[in-house]
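User: Show me a protein chain along with its predicted structure.
Assistant: Here is one chain, sequence first, then structure tokens.
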Amino acid sequence: MSYFPTEDRDGTIIITLTNGERNTLHPALLEEGIAALQTLAKNPPENGIVLTGAGEHFTCGMDTKIAATLDKTGQKQAAAAIDAFAAALHRLPCAVVVALNGNTIGAGGIMALAADWIVAAQGDYKIGLPEAKAGLPFPPVPQAILDHWLDPVWRRRLALSSHLLTPIEALSAGLADELADPAQLLDKAVACAQELAAQPGFKACKRQLRAKANAEIDAILAS
């Protein structure tokens, strides 16, 4: 069973992060995701990509039970996998929309910031970056994504306080671009991806917009 099953909806590829009740992340899952994203980067779908989570959560971040069993080598490998996954998502040349269907915690927030547009379902759930509370400092690539795509004031507030936001609050913070009825979330996200992709200059503008961030990410991964 894949952690990242896909569906083709009118030329838009929907990727659904699928791992138990909370869609937590671990090294094997991340490695599968890296391979899937790199494959899509080589042959990007013309109508873009939508990334969402299965069930009631987008992702609750790293699997703390698995993380607790890792020795120093395993911890380094896990951090490298997070870096490579975030880089692969950020580098996708096509339109990428995330559809936040529930709790979006830690690495989930980084995944959202790596996308071109964030559609969040209306509802009673949280979005945030509680790495300080979890005792897990940001790896270098997620930190670069934060530095480039989250307003400095909100970056300070969220990274240092571990405060979690409601979907409405996330709109003000830049961790969501629009809200959608949960029943219409995927339809809205697909429509957004297709609207972005339909612009003649979208890929060129995205390439320009991300050039500095991608160069920084390339330097991190090469070091």
